[in-house]
Write a structure and sequence with these properties.
5-stranded mixed beta barrel, alpha+beta, single chain, 6-stranded mixed sheet
């Protein structure tokens, strides 16, 4: 059913298209039309690790939870496992991604209100505790990291830095890191 109202179509007249295009390019940081194709925007989940803004490509994640809820310590769990949290009624091993950065794992009671990134590696779904806020973002990589960054096991593997200042974590490194943790 329609109410019978009709709105006129707005028409814009551009006086100087070249000047507008030049201003748009300067705002976007792209200097020439050739560069437009070179800019690769990625869909990301942004979060913090030890206060630093980080991101991960959304495709590597199964889901994101805003709060882990109670994390239960498990006797006999590997040294990298902070405990178990129930998400959607299923127990998931909780790994502290911030602990990978700082070298100090948080206690289970400290993770209760932490957001988590849920990933499946080797057929097992695990929760990676991060720091809030967790947001969706779209950004292009501006500076690329050195090949092999993070492969020594002491640092988070990075792809590079986005134009918005996020350190983009390498999805392949993350999968290897999760697979190597004993839970």
């Amino acid at each position: 059913m329609t109410n019978g109202l009709r709105f006129p179509t707005a028409r814009l007249r551009v006086q100087d298209a070249e000047v507008l295009e030049q201003r748009a390019r300067s705002l976007s940081g792209v200097d020439s039309p050739e560069e437009i194709g070179a800019v690769e925007a990625r869909m990301l989940v942004a979060f913090r690790l030890d206060g630093s803004p980080c991101a991960l490509e959304i495709g590597v994640l199964d889901r994101v939870v805003a709060r882990l809820g109670p994390v239960i310590a498990v006797a006999g769990a590997g040294p990298d496992c902070c405990g178990v949290a129930f998400v959607d009624g299923r127990p998931l091993a909780v790994l502290d991604l911030r602990g990978a950065v700082t070298g100090t794992l948080r206690r289970p009671d400290e993770l209760r209100s932490s957001p988590a990134l849920l990933v499946a590696v080797g057929g097992q779904r695990q929760a990676l505790a991060v720091e809030a806020p967790v947001e969706l973002a779209e950004a292009a990589v501006e500076a690329r990291a050195q090949q092999g960054a993070g492969d020594d096991g002491r640092a988070v593997g990075l792809i590079g830095l986005t134009r918005t200042g996020l350190s983009l974590i390498d999805s392949a490194w993350l999968r290897r890191w999760v697979a190597s943790r004993r839970t």
